[in-house]
Amino acid sequence: MTSTPGASEVRTLVATLILPSPRGKAAAEAHDAVASRAPNATGQAVAPTAKPAHPSPTAKPAPPSAAAHPTAATPAPPAHEETASAGLLVTLAQLREIMTTLAQTKATAYIPPLNKAMAEFHIDNRLRMAAFLGQVAHESGELKWFHEFASGMEYDITKNPKLAKGLGNVNPGDGPRYKGRGPIQLTGRANYRACGKALGLDLEGNPDIAVEPGVAFRTAGWFWDTHGLNALADKEDYRLITRRINGGYNGYDDRVKYYDRALKVFPAGAHA
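Structure (tokenized):
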């Protein structure tokens, strides 16, 4: 999630050992404060075909040259039509309409793994896509941050044993090793293990791969799926979606901004 948990979230995290749980409003605000100081990403006319001077009675005139009647260029489809033609859930143009500060090069690289993850976890209709991308845009700073700003020591057994054990961080150093990664941050040894098992990846043994786009978007999809967020998106309950991700409503107005923007980008009836 967006931030490091406060002490008030300990009981919630202990109760959700396997599923990643929200990390708390106070800690989310601290993360956003750090994030606010992070650098931003930043035709010629063609002569008619000549006729033969003395055509043979049996000779047929040659067909006119294709150049004599140039075919009009087919206009490029509007951005919203790219989805159907390319077989994508979200296109490059649509993603950059939602996340307006996302660099073209990064957006281009993210489109294939993002679409693959959304399809894998059935984030495949207008309401689900808008809700998912709205939350991801806020949580990751428009896909600029795939890791937690804090060190992760808040979840280390040497500093906060109860919180650490709730996340499965049983060894010294597990806090930093299993700090938040991905667009919706995966946190804690137990969650890396559970997510890795579901995805067929050794995330517990190789936690750093959770920042790679092909893995990161899948971890976000896994979180979305295991927390029942598609059903909430279908009900348009964006407020409860926010609570399940954040543990509160930190940055809610910003999340709604992206959600509303995405709803406008995906026309009504798209992927219904």
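The CA atoms of residues 89 and 115 lie 6 Å apart. The radius of gyration is 26 Å.
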